[in-house]
Design a protein that fits this description.
The protein is an alpha/beta fold. 33% of the residues lie in helices and 16% in strands. The strands form 5 sheets. The protein has a 5-stranded mixed sheet with strand order 1-9-8-7-18, with helices on one face. A 5-stranded parallel sheet has the order 6-3-2-10-17, with helices on one face. The protein has a 4-stranded antiparallel sheet with strand order 12-15-14-13, covered by helices on one side. A hairpin with a 4-residue loop joins strand 8 (155-161) and strand 9 (166-168). Helix 2 runs antiparallel to helix 3 (77-85) and helix 11 runs parallel beside helix 13 (443-463).
Length: 474
Amino acid sequence: MGGVNRCDVLIVGGGLAGCSAAAELAERFPRLAVRVVDAGGGASTEVMGFSAPVEQEDSPERFFDDTLRNANGEGDPRLARVLADRALPELHRLEALGIAFDRTPDGAYDTLRAAGTSCPRVVHCGTSTGREVLRRLGVAPERRRVSALLLREGRVAGARFADGETVRCSAVLLAGGGFAGLWRFSSWNKLLRGDALLFARSAGAALDGLGLVQYEPTVTVYPEALCGFPVITTVLNAGARLLDREGNSLLAPGEPVPCKRELARRIAEALAAGRGWEHGGIRYDFSGVDEAEFARKYPGYYRKFCRFARSFRELFFEVKPGAHTTLGGIRIEPDGSTAVPGLFAAGECIGNLHGCDRLGGNAGLEVLVFGRIAGASAGRFAAAQPTGYPAGAATVETMDVTATPPELFPAIGAILDRSCGVLRSERALREGLRALAKLPVSPHGELARLTLEDALTRLLRQSGAGADAAETPE
């Protein structure tokens, strides 16, 4: 296509974070020219619901405490505070758009209790909240892939698309998702490979906590037709069981369902001990779940699951942990800004909110809250630029993220699966670094290397070996 065009704000990512940012910009800065581009592959349409402290026993303070407890000392309390305080206003904003969240017969919100939470907190519109919010926001992203950002004098000046077009702008908002698609066994689309993180780092922004990855505990390995599908964990609070091949439950009788990090660890340890079923997973048994109640609460999932059994008395899956949410990413301030003037970020590509583990329901809330915050911040920045983009100095282009050869991705994914899973060891991480060093240099190979190095540093720190020992993979 080629050519040079102009806008005020470029949003890279057309999921809930990017579209929420675009909606905020349209509302607050209607005179600014905004473009939203998206290469596809996002997870927003799969968002079932999001956290909101609507129950009488709940509160923003309790929500904040739950979020920090799951972060296990790694999350930024400033971001967690913003998330907790803006949950109810975001819920009411969406209701004003016309979204009807599920209610019980007495009119209360029909909340779900997610893994790791101290009380029910997930509000939802059937099982398709993400789709409904996107429909109501009404943003139509261009299906384009950005290949590089443009900088002038250390500030954002624009971006280049894979088809050759250049766009000049005052601000870029990165909302392109995380990088769990780099793993071979993952719950997410393979297009989610970390382009946004590569843009940010190449531009001069800091990355944070790349080795912190949430592994969805219950990703299907059987039946084959559903392989890679993450089975929701909320039904473990409603009679579902996780059983090893001897029929033993991985949860003690009456035990509250632990956070996803702990669930993933138990499943991984059972599989490592040879207690898996014939297809390589732990059995997720639905025979104790009230089928009618499940159909009411999860109509979309119910239609999907009914294809695999005549009734819930016969329904089961084999599951194992899969790379799901990359908790590390671009370091932002509470206003969504980065260390690079004119560069903002929101959604799963950010890295200092969730820490060691993301609380169930917080993914759907995070993209809404910080999408709007980053959108407003990008709008204020762009509106204050008199010329639209910096003039004078030469334009510098960041790395081209399309430079990774497609044939390298399976090799990178296999290395991450082997060396950077739920159960980590120094030996496996060092072997992974050596294996990556043998591959041709590539942008996404570099991201994988940074991830393994961060994971190794954290492991050695926990063991008391010290961070210096992580610098040499040999």
